[in-house]
Each structure stands twice: as structure tokens, then as C-alpha cells.
Design goal:
The complex is a heterodimer of chains A (about 425) and B (about 850). With about 425 residues, chain A is an alpha/beta fold. Helix content of chain A is about 40%, strand content about 10%. In chain A, the strands form 3 sheets. Chain A has a 4-stranded parallel β-sheet, sandwiched between helices. In chain B, the strands form 9 sheets. Chain B has a 7-stranded mixed β-sheet, with helices on both faces. A 6-stranded mixed β-barrel of chain B has the order 31-35-32-34-33-36. In chain B, strands 2-1-5-3-4 form a 5-stranded mixed β-sheet, with helices on both faces. Classes of the chains: A alpha/beta (about 425), B alpha/beta (about 850).
Chain lengths: ~425, ~850
């Protein structure tokens, strides 16, 4: 599959001089989407977004317009933008927050306008110091410019926007934990039901939670129409999307490409994108959609970057981060590193994740350090099974939120794909990669 | 609380393990299944708290749009046609998995754990767990245990993070002082830095803990659960009447546990009640009768002590008439004791100088004569009006119930108070009044205010009035012992004019309501009848009756001080510490001819007695008690009485015999049989009825129009005398003029104080606070002491130095001094208060 000539959407201003400032933003067509949206009926904005079939860019890939349509009737309602990007190897929102904050603000206001929200919040990962600084400066500029606040651009529509820095927990990227944190409570995911914040969210009110990249698409969609967006991509996977490429490639980075029309191989090998694997090494495995996603081997590298295609193949595009591992990678250590991450970030609320993540971390560490037993492989699977029964895809779970069933992905992938490598660790009593 | 079913009368049918089961719509699956006989294992679920779905032990399969899926039964509401499977291999695997996860970091130190033997985690592991562990890693370690407070220890290694304790502290107690700290498998429950878990309800967390993580310091390492025997009883540390399980080992009380009584305590206890068993075990209990020999009380036989007492009673009556005999106290006795003593005093000795209250209560005809509400009725009222002491301090579990009504059910609280209380933060309207002006404020609340009244703004009063609705319940007690009972009686008379109003008494002594029901007050006879109305009825069952209404506590003490009381009986009463006017109480004890104290401890008062008779304490005898609602419940005996102590009723029987009269009972049941027969309000409440498990929560007297199925055997023939009804007459209250240089005194009790029982429970005694004067910051500013400091407080009676603190909860112009602080050394409210005055005015000066 060749690379398409579709122009980037959400990253189109990145690279402009001082792209994060209002003047630069206005010079490059900023706030035109919002101005147009203010002339439209809210329902028409939602209709355009439904037409665009914009899929959520946070990880679950739920249709944004459909989510808005599910917003419960009681008012007030809130809009919360999830900028708590913490998934290892995911760094697209990081870039947008630092380099195009006005686009996020514009998209947020359009979303609030479409759903009739009383207030909007942008929850930014606390570690993004520069992002918070630029978002805050941009928000001040936007207020002064009349793009946020009372009677936006002279219209009847008013909304306040609050930037809330996160306190350093991965789990707050889970939308209900984010809401709890925003309310000033511990970042514990809420137990379901209710299943969606659109029914009961922030302060018990109906709430739309959208990802930073998702709302960044809104100004373009309003300006150019949902159909123009839907014309890009194939099937349900429309538009363009940022993929965070990392690992053993020559050119790691964020690449916005047309959905479904580019394959993992293109992304990794195209000289304008990943530029191939370092030192001409061979591909051993890759993670197609963030640390929570099951791994793919070289045999799946020709899959398209298409949400449904990847789902059918047993993994997910998730947050759009692709980690490439070459032949020099110890797969036990790779899986352990991810397990350790989930162990450290488990919120501790429910038993299987709290205790299972730590137990798996300890077993994986033991194997990597050469103290493993052959029976540990079955034990790993059974412990994983008690967190995600059946170890199927999409996973089932005994836990409150999806952090739990994310834990087994790297372990089961590693053992299934590289069982011999695990056994070598056990038999040699040491990591063969040193 | 967990069930949201009240307005949905219909039922739904669910399929539970293939069987069709009827459930309430919206009820959680775990509860519906349990009622249908299917017990789903759980750790975090508790029916009295909101579900959190955290432990995941109750995972079952519920059919959804995409087929069966695992879901927590504690968090899935039932719905019509729902299909649930609790026994499939999938469910079993999930539950086994959770159990194994819970044990991964659990220390398995069951042999040295208090909970071992009654531990849900241990029980489920033994029942369903595998024989061997697959966990070969190092477990998580914590320093163990740490003190969360003076009463509660936490072993974090054992904690399974079920959120029960933290939920209780936040949701039920309103003291969110413990929280989860950290995350993942290093999550721990802990306090905030430098803020101990100093909740009056902290002990409940120990009982709620499903493992041995939370430990009661007084119980730690004291017993093994399988060595404990228990009997159900009612806590008698205050008058709420919480049901408890009294547990003992080797004839020593080891523990009280809360029992879930739906109409009363919902399973909760306050820490004062929970740990009060320590006083029963105290080494300082009186174990033998004592008789005065010169300056000393020396041990003697029952025969000698009873003979001396009988002789003193007889000669006082013979020489000076029945009015020379007086009986003070009795509000701590069981109903049967109170009846036996009422019969001895009024029906044998013929004196009506009898008062169970010590000048800090309200007149019997008011309390017994007002239409009464139950706690449940108060919590379902259109509004709750508080004209009462600080409920959190004096009736703690009633505080929990009222707080729940206000917070969870939205019942408006309207408070009339001279100082903010523990409930003020939950009150829709907190109206303050100047001491002595309660009646003015009450009248304004009933009739509407046209101007500011008693220190409250007209708009606030009228706003509160609009909240009352058509069936308010007034919680009625003494907001301050430095304000006369007449002032509060006048206020109650005004509130009695509210349409549809009922009253819940807030008098704190354990069985004050039972004592009044049994006639231990001037002018009344057992069964809530006046002396006059009951005269004919009782003259057929008692040998004699008082000729006219006698003196109340203040009257008795005044008469004693003037030398007109020749024999004074103290029934578990310590007027020197408890009567608001300490000077009068001391003069009375000195002036009384002969003092007999029936008590379990030597107190300031009983040390001055001529004879001290040792009384059996709580759990050393059985009987019944009556709570603020008029609810009669059983008291259980668990251990044998200390030394040669006797139950109080038996002492009355023996004294009567020595006075030549048989009271006519040899057992507690015989006393109660007579009560049921002769006390008009108690007709039909037989021993058999009280023993019936269907009435395990007790019955309220009088029985309603439709009496319970079991009826008594020996009901007395009609016509019975009419029950007391409050006349509605307000006593005249004449206030001294306000003096711009004085502050009006407010004095209330705190939960832990200088009380005899608390002071003999080591775990509680340490919690009592030293005295401190509280005043509005602006009043202290006037003295140039805005930040507080030592001041001199002066009244007509006394003056002393005391630490003062600014407190915006005390209105301007008032000074608050706790009545029952420890380490008083003369610097206390009791030294300032004059029993004859409506209010006490004090000057506050820089030292």
C-alpha cells in the first residue's frame, strides 16, 4: 500500500513559528471552525460529527458523535477533555498540547456548544509542565480574544474552560477515574453501571469525555464538513490519525497518516515515516496500539492501520502507539517492563488488579533474573486468566476497569509467541540477552 | 441505605441458578439472592453502607445483551427477567481467583490474630481455598500494628482494602479521618498526618473489618473467639438503647459487639458504649456492703448494713413523717429495680420525695405526657426540631440516625440551641438563642417572628418555620444545664402547639424513661399515671400511698441542706458530681440525717454515706430497660455479680422485709409480672412477649391499638386510670435583665467526662478532656484575648482561673463550659450554677 497524499489535519500547523500562540494560530486559519459552528444549530454540529464518523482517539475508538448523542437530558452537563496521556509509548497528545493548544481549545468549545455544556475542563497530565504552561497561556489569550468565556465572538453562547493538572496517576486517564480526580477525590475508576459518564459523570451530571486528539479534529470537521473527513480512510476508520512510532526504528516520532490506507510496514519502513529498523535489524515483534495491546509478529506487519482490521486480528489500535522491537530484544524483559508498569500504576481499588499485577510482576522478574520454573508459565497464564477470564480478545474482566485486563496482554503475547525464549531463561537460569 | 426500593412497591422475578425468585426492583442481587437462600460470598459488601464493588468476591454471571458475563452481585440491581448464575465453573474460578489474590499479600498470621476463629477470610479459605499456595514470592511488609487512635490499632499487612472502615467513617459517622493512601498493592488505610482517627464511632470499624486488620486496643490479645460466650442485651451507657452482644470469657467481660436492631442502632455503637465493659471489670468495684464507723467506711455483712438502713428509714418516718425520707436516682437501674424501689418508697414508706433525675432532666409529666415519637418516626418526619443537648455528645447513636435522616433522606433539621452542636453542620436551620430565652424562640417558630427574637433573626426563624411541614418531631432535652428546666418546659409547651407534632425525649441517663415509667419521680405512679389519677387503682395493689406530690431533686437537696431529710437514699446517684448546683448538692449530703448509697463504686457522694450497699452492675443481672422511645428490651446476664453485690430490686425486697412488708417478688420475672399487671402503660407487655424472638427489637409502651399476637396471662381488671397527658401549661419564667458586662453561661456534657463509669474504664478515661471555657471570638476580643488564654470566670457563687478559647459556635454574650470535664479542681460549671436561677450570669476577666 502506498502512502496517500492526504494532508494532515490535526498536525497541520505544527512546525509553524511559535505555533502555540494565538497570533500564529489566527494566521493559519484558527478559530474559523468555531466561528462557523456558532452560526449552526447544535444538532447540526453533532450531525456533521456523526457524518464524519470521527472515532475517539483515546484508545477505545468509540464514535465521538454517537457519544454526544447519548448524553442524558438533565442539565447541567459538562465537557471534559482527557489530556492525561500516560500510556507508555504514547506521545501524540503531548505534542498537541505543547504545539497547538488553541486547536484543542477551539475543539473543546465546539464540543461544548454542540452538546450544550455548562462548563468544560481540560485535564492535562501533571508531568506535562510545558504543555500546561502553553495551554494556560493559550487559554488566557483565548479569553482575551473572545473565543472562550461570555458571549463567545459576540454570540449568545458562553462557556468557561478550566485547565486541571493531573496529580501523577496513570489510572486517571480512565475517564471515570479522571472524573473522580477532577472532583477532588482519589483517582479510583467508578464501578459500572452506570457504564458511561454521558449518563452520570462529573458531579453526578451528564458528561462528555473526549480525548485531546479527538477534539482537535473538530475545527477542521466543522469547517470542511463531516463528509470531507469521512472521505478519508476506509470504512469506519475515517480521517487521518496520529501514530506514535517508537522502539527500534530509525525515525521514531508522531506521524499523522490517513486511516486504513497505510500499513504497519509502511509506517515502520517508509523513509518519510519510520525509516526502517535500526542497524538493518529484523523485526521481532511490535505492539500495535499501546502497552495494553497484545503484540503482533512480523507476519502481521502488512495489516492496515485500521481499527476494525487490527481488532479482528486480535489486538487493537488503541491509543495509536506502535512500539517496534527488533531481534536484539529480550521478550521476557520487554513483557516484564510492561507488567511492572501496570503493577506500579494499578490504583489498588479492586482485588484482581491490585494483587494480580504485583504477583505477575514478581513472577516475570524471577524468570528474567533466572530464577524461574517451567511451571511458572502455566501459573502466569492462570493468574492472567483470573484477571481476564478466558484470555480472549476483546478481553473479559474480573476487575472494575480495563486496566486489569490490560495487564495480561504483554505476558500472554510474550509466552505465546516466544515460549522458547521464556524456557531458555528458565533452563539457563539467566537472561540470554545479558 | 443500600436499597432504593421504597417507592417501588412492585416485585420483579429473576432467574437465579435456574430457579425463579421474586425480588424487589432495584435491590442488589447479593441481597435478593441471600433472601432466596443463596449466599454469595463477599468482603466489601455491607447492607448498611453503599456498595463499592471493590473486593470482587461476589462475582456472578449475569446475562446481558452479549450473553452471560461476570458482574459483582453487590452492584447489580435486580430487574425483571434477569438471569443470574452463581454456581457455574466460570463463577467458581473467578471467586477462587479473588480469594487467592486476597491471600497473596495476607500474612496468614491467624494463630496470633484477634480475628482468627471469626474471620470471613479465614472461613472462606478453609471452606473453599486450595490446600497449598502457589505464591512463592516475598509478601508486602508493613510495620505492625500502628495506632490509628487511642482505641483502634491497624495491622496493614492483614488489610484486604475492602473500604468498609473508610466508608463507615465517611458515610455513616461523618468523620472522614481515615482514607486510602498510596496505590496498587502498596495501598494502605491510614489517617491524615497528625490527625488521629478520633471519632466517637471508631470501634465500629473494628467490628466491620472482615479480617484482623483493625484491632480494638482494649480487646487485643485478650481472648480467642471460640472461648467467648455471649448473651444479647441492651447497652446502658445512654438512653438510646443500642442492642449489643455481651461476650465474656472466664466470668470476665471481654467485648461488646453491636447487634443490628432495625428500629434503633442499625448495628452501630459509640465507643463509650462499646468499651464500657471495662468498668464492670474494674478492681475498684465495691464488693461488699460498707458501714460508717467514725470517719471510715468499713466492710460489713449484708445483715448489718440492711439492719442499719432499715432502722434509719423506719425512725425517720416514725419521728418526722414519710416526707423525711427521700430517694434520689434510679435512672441507671433496670425497670424491675426501678419498680421495686418505687414500690418501697411510695407504697411502703409512703414518701413522694422521689426523683430519678438529678436536676438536669425535665419534669416527668412533661416527658411522659407529650405525644411520643420513635426514632424511626423522627427520621421519617417532615422535619426534626432539636431543642436538646449536643446529641453527638450525649446520645451518639441517635446522632448517627438523625445525621442519616438529614444527609441521606433529606429530612430538614431545625435546631434551637444556645451553642452550635455536632448536628449544626447538617441542620437546614440552626437558630441560636440566648440562655433562658428558649421559650421566646420556640413561640416565634410556632407563630412566626415579626422581629429578631432571642438573638435569632426574624428571617431565619421564619425560614425555619417554613421547613417544619405537617408532622415534625421535636427532639427534646436540656440544651444546657445552666438554663432551668422551667425555661425548656415553657419552650416545649410552645412547640406542643405545632400541628401534628410528636416528641422524642433526649434525656441521657440509660433508663431514665424506664425509671419515670416506674414512678420514680414526684407526683406520679408506675405506668405513666399521676398520683391523683392513680390513687384508687394503686390503693388496691399497694399497702400505702403518699398523701400528696413530693419534692423533686432540687427540692429534696434543698430540704436536706436545711436538715429536713432524715434518710436520703442514693440509687446509683452522685449528686455531688451530677447535680448542676454543686454547692447545694454538697450542703445536702452534709445536712441529710442518714445517707444510704446503693452503688457499684464509691463516688464523691457515696463516700459520704452512712451505709453503702453494693449493687450488681450491667451484665451481672438480667431484666429489662426502656429507651428514649419507650422501647422495652431485655438486659442479659453474662457473668456473676462482683463480690456479694445484689441486683437493686433484691435490695429493695430485703429492706422492705426488714420494714415488715413483703414486696411480693422473688424473681425478676415476678417483678415484671406485677408491672404488667399494675402499670397502665405497660398492660400486655408480658415476659413471654418480651422473650419472643419476633419482638427481639423490643416493644414500645403502651402497646398500640393492635397488640402483638402474644398477650399476657394476668391482666388487671379495668378500669385503669388514664395515662398522663401534658397540660400544655407553660411555667412562668422570669429572666434577670441582661447585663452588658456579663456573659450568660451555657453548660453541656461531652461524651467522655468525669462520670464514674467512664472513669473506671481505662480505655475511655484517658479520652476525657480538661476544662476549657469557650466564648465568641468577639467577646474575647473585647478582653484583648482574641486568641484565647487564661481568664478568670466569676459568678455570685465562685470564681476561678481557666483557659479560654475563641469559638464562633458560641453566640456573642454567652460563655460555654463543659459540665463534666476532668481535672476540675473547682474550676467547673457546677461551682457557678445556682439551682434556683433561670440562668447563670458570669463575668469574664483577664487574670
Amino acid at each position: 500500500m502506498p502512502l496517500t497524499d492526504a494532508a494532515p489535519i490535526v498536525t497541520r500547523r505544527i512546525g509553524n513559528a511559535r505555533s502555540w500562540t494565538l497570533s500564529s494560530y489566527l494566521d493559519h486559519g484558527g478559530y474559523q471552525g468555531l466561528r462557523k459552528a456558532l452560526t449552526m444549530a447544535p444538532a447540526d454540529i453533532t450531525a456533521e460529527v456523526l457524518t464524519s464518523n470521527l472515532l475517539g482517539r483515546g484508545g477505545a475508538g468509540f464514535e465521538a458523535g454517537k457519544k454526544w448523542s447519548m448524553l442524558a437530558k438533565p442539565r447541567p452537563a459538562y465537557v471534559v477533555i482527557n489530556g492525561d496521556e500516560s500510556e507508555p509509548a504514547t506521545f501524540k497528545d503531548h505534542m498537541l498540547l505543547e504545539n497547538d493548544p488553541h486547536q484543542i481549545i477551539e475543539g473543546t468549545v465546539i464540543c461544548a456548544l454542540a452538546v450544550g455544556a455548562a462548563q468544560a475542563f481540560i485535564f492535562v497530565r501533571g508531568e506535562f509542565a510545558l504543555g500546561i504552561e502553553r495551554m494556560t497561556a493559550a487559554l488566557n489569550e483565548a479569553y482575551a480574544h473572545g473565543a472562550v468565556g461570555r458571549n463567545i465572538f459576540g454570540s449568545d453562547f458562553s462557556i468557561d474552560l478550566v485547565i486541571h493538572p493531573g496529580a501523577g496517576a496513570y489510572i486517571c486517564g480512565e475517564e471515570t477515574a479522571l472524573i473522580e480526580s477532577l472532583e477532588g477525590k482519589r483517582g479510583f475508576p467508578r464501578i459500572k453501571p452506570p457504564f458511561f459518564p454521558a449518563a452520570i459523570g462529573l458531579y453526578g451530571a451528564p458528561t462528555i469525555v473526549n480525548n485531546v486528539e479527538t477534539v482537535s479534529n473538530l475545527p477542521w470537521i466543522v469547517e470542511n464538513g463531516g463528509a470531507a473527513f469521512a472521505a478519508l480512510g476506509i470504512g469506519r476508520s475515517t480521517g487521518t490519525r496520529i501514530f506514535s512510532l517508537s522502539g527500534h526504528v530509525n525515525r521514531p516520532g508522531n506521524y499523522e497518516v490517513e486511516m486504513s490506507k497505510v500499513s504497519f510496514r509502511d509506517l515502520i519502513e517508509d523513509p518519510r515515516l519510520g525509516g526502517g529498523i535500526r542497524n538493518g535489524n529484523k523485526l521481532k515483534a511490535f505492539i500495535p496500539g499501546g502497552a495494553s495491546a497484545p503484540w503482533f509478529g512480523p507476519d502481521q506487519v502488512d495489516l492496515a492501520l485500521d481499527q476494525d482490521a487490527v481488532g479482528k486480528a486480535g489486538s487493537m489500535l488503541g491509543s495509536g502507539s506502535i512500539v517496534v522491537m527488533d531481534e536484539t530484544t529480550c521478550m521476557v524483559r520487554a513483557a516484564w517492563r510492561i507488567t511492572r508498569f501496570f503493577h506500579r500504576e494499578s490504583c489498588g481499588q479492586c482485588t484482581p488488579c491490585r494483587e494480580g499485577s504485583g504477583w505477575l510482576d514478581k513472577i516475570m522478574r524471577r524468570i528474567e533474573e533466572g530464577a524461574g520454573r517451567e511451571s511458572d508459565l502455566d501459573l502466569l497464564f492462570d493468574v492472567c486468566d483470573n484477571i481476564a477470564p478466558g484470555l480472549s480478545w476483546p478481553p473479559r474482566q474480573t476487575t472494575i476497569c480495563v486496566l486489569g485486563p490490560s495487564i495480561p496482554s504483554s505476558i500472554t503475547s510474550g509466552v505465546r509467541m516466544f515460549r522458547d525464549e521464556f524456557l531458555t531463561h528458565v533452563k539457563e537460569g539467566a537472561c540470554p540477552y545479558g | 441505605m443500600a436499597e432504593q426500593t421504597e417507592n417501588k412497591p412492585d416485585t420483579v422475578t429473576i432467574t437465579l441458578d435456574g430457579k425463579r425468585v421474586t425480588a424487589k426492583p432495584g435491590e442488589m442481587l447479593i441481597a435478593a439472592a441471600e433472601r432466596a437462600g443463596v449466599y454469595i460470598p463477599r468482603f466489601c459488601y455491607h447492607p448498611r453502607m453503599r456498595p463499592v464493588g471493590m473486593c470482587r468476591m461476589c462475582l456472578v454471571e449475569v446475562k446481558g445483551p452479549r450473553g452471560f458475563g461476570l458482574a459483582p452481585a453487590c452492584f447489580i440491581p435486580t430487574s425483571e427477567g434477569q438471569e443470574v448464575v452463581t454456581t457455574s465453573p466460570t463463577v467458581k474460578k473467578a471467586q477462587d481467583g479473588v480469594l487467592e489474590f486476597l491471600l497473596v499479600n495476607h500474612p496468614l498470621d491467624c494463630p496470633v490474630c484477634d480475628k482468627g476463629g471469626e474471620c470471613p477470610l479465614q472461613d472462606q479459605t478453609v471452606a473453599f481455598g486450595p490446600g497449598e499456595t502457589r505464591f512463592v514470592e516475598e509478601k508486602r511488609h508493613w510495620a505492625k500494628p500502628i495506632a490509628l487512635s487511642d482505641l483502634v490499632y491497624l495491622d496493614r499487612e492483614r488489610c484486604i482494602q475492602c473500604d468498609r472502615c473508610t466508608r463507615f467513617a465517611d458515610e455513616v459517622a461523618g468523620d472522614p479521618l481515615i482514607e486510602f493512601v498510596g496505590r496498587g498493592d502498596s495501598i494502605e488505610v491510614n489517617t491524615f498526618p497528625d490527625q488521629p482517627f478520633s471519632s466517637y464511632f471508631s470501634g465500629n470499624t473494628v467490628q466491620l473489618c472482615p479480617v484482623g486488620a483493625l484491632l480494638a486496643r482494649p480487646y487485643r490479645f485478650k481472648a480467642r473467639p471460640w472461648d467467648l460466650e455471649q448473651v444479647e442485651s441492651t447497652c446502658t451507657m445512654c438512653s438510646v438503647g443500642c442492642r449489643i452482644a455481651v461476650q465474656s470469657s472466664s466470668n470476665e467481660l471481654t467485648r461488646y459487639l453491636g447487634v443490628d436492631s432495625e428500629p434503633v442502632n442499625h448495628g452501630w455503637l459509640c465507643d463509650q458504649g462499646r468499651f464500657s465493659y471495662q468498668y464492670v471489670n474494674s478492681d475498684e468495684r465495691i464488693s461488699s456492703p460498707l458501714v460508717r464507723k467514725g470517719d471510715e467506711l468499713v466492710e460489713c455483712s449484708w445483715g448489718e448494713a440492711l439492719a442499719a438502713t432499715a432502722k434509719a428509714l423506719e425512725s425517720a418516718k416514725a419521728v418526722h413523717g414519710p416526707g423525711a425520707v427521700a430517694v434520689l436516682g434510679g435512672a441507671r437501674l433496670a425497670n424491675e429495680d426501678a419498680y421495686a424501689w418505687a414500690k418501697l418508697a411510695k407504697g411502703v414508706l409512703g414518701t413522694d420525695n422521689v426523683d430519678a433525675q438529678l436536676g438536669d432532666g425535665l419534669p416527668a409529666e412533661l416527658v411522659l405526657g407529650l405525644p411520643r415519637a420513635t426514632i424511626d418516626e423522627a427520621c421519617a418526619a417532615s422535619a426534626i426540631v432539636l431543642l436538646a443537648p449536643d446529641i453527638k455528645e450525649e446520645l451518639p447513636v441517635l446522632y448517627l440516625r438523625l445525621r442519616e435522616a438529614a444527609v441521606d433522606k433529606g429530612v430538614p433539621l431545625v435546631e434551637l440551641t444556645p451553642q452550635s452542636t455536632g448536628l449544626s453542620r447538617y441542620a437546614k436551620a440552626s437558630l441560636s438563642y440566648r440562655p433562658g430565652e428558649a421559650a421566646l424562640l420556640a413561640k416565634a417558630l410556632v407563630d412566626g417572628a415579626t422581629g429578631d427574637v432571642a438573638g435569632s433573626k426574624a428571617a431565619a426563624v421564619n425560614g425555619a418555620r417554613a421547613l417544619l411541614g405537617d408532622n415534625p418531631v421535636v427532639v427534646l432535652g436540656r440544651p444546657s444545664v445552666a438554663e432551668s428546666a422551667a425555661s425548656i418546659t415553657a419552650a416545649a409547651a410552645a412547640l406542643a402547639g405545632l400541628p401534628g407534632v410528636r416528641f422524642l425525649p433526649a434525656l441521657r441517663r440509660a433508663n431514665v424513661m424506664g425509671a419515670l415509667d416506674m414512678g420514680l419521680a414526684p407526683g406520679i405512679l408506675p405506668g405513666r399515671v399521676s398520683l391523683d389519677a392513680g390513687r384508687d387503682w394503686f390503693s388496691s395493689v399497694w399497702t400505702t400511698l403518699p398523701t400528696g406530690a413530693g419534692l423533686d431533686a432540687a427540692g429534696i437537696l434543698s430540704a436536706a441542706a436545711e436538715g429536713r431529710i432524715q434518710a436520703l437514699v442514693l440509687l446509683g446517684a452522685d449528686p455531688a458530681a451530677d447535680f448542676p448546683d454543686r454547692q447545694l448538692a454538697r450542703q445536702a449530703l452534709a445536712g441529710a440525717g442518714f445517707v444510704v448509697a446503693v452503688d457499684a463504686f464509691l463516688t464523691e457522694s457515696s463516700r459520704q454515706a452512712d451505709v453503702v450497699l453494693p449493687a450488681a452492675a450491667f451484665a451481672e443481672r438480667h431484666g429489662t430497660t426502656t429507651n428514649i422511645e419507650g422501647r422495652i428490651t431485655s438486659l442479659g446476664q453474662k457473668i456473676v455479680p462482683n463480690g456479694v453485690s445484689w441486683p437493686d430490686w433484691m435490695i429493695a425486697v430485703e429492706l422492705a422485709a426488714r420494714l415488715g412488708t413483703e414486696l411480693g417478688f422473688e424473681t425478676v420475672e415476678q417483678v415484671w409480672d406485677e408491672v404488667e399487671r399494675v402499670a397502665p402503660s405497660h398492660a400486655g407487655i408480658t415476659c413471654a412477649l418480651l422473650a419472643d424472638r419476633r419482638f427481639r427489637d423490643g416493644v414500645t409502651a403502651p402497646l398500640g391499638a393492635a397488640p402483638p399476637a402474644i398477650t399476657g396471662t394476668g391482666s388487671a381488671p379495668a378500669p385503669r386510670p388514664a395515662l398522663l397527658a401534658f397540660s400544655g401549661e407553660a411555667p412562668a419564667v422570669s429572666l434577670p435583665p441582661l447585663d452588658a458586662y456579663s456573659l450568660r453561661l451555657v453548660s453541656r456534657r461531652t461524651l467522655y467526662g468525669n462520670g464514674t463509669l467512664v472513669q473506671h474504664a481505662p480505655g475511655l478515661a484517658a479520652l476525657a478532656k480538661s476544662p476549657c471555657a469557650r466564648a465568641n471570638p468577639s467577646d474575647l476580643d473585647r478582653l484583648g484575648m482574641g486568641k484565647g488564654g487564661q481568664v478568670r470566670v466569676r459568678s455570685n457563687r465562685a470564681n476561678f482561673l481557666i483557659d479560654a478559647e475563641p469559638d464562633p459556635g458560641v453566640p456573642r454574650g454567652s460563655l460555654s463550659l463543659a459540665f463534666n470535664s476532668v481535672d476540675l479542681e473547682g474550676s467547673d460549671a457546677g461551682a457557678l450554677i445556682d439551682a434556683d436561677a433561670v440562668v447563670t450570669d458570669v463575668r469574664v476577666e483577664t487574670p
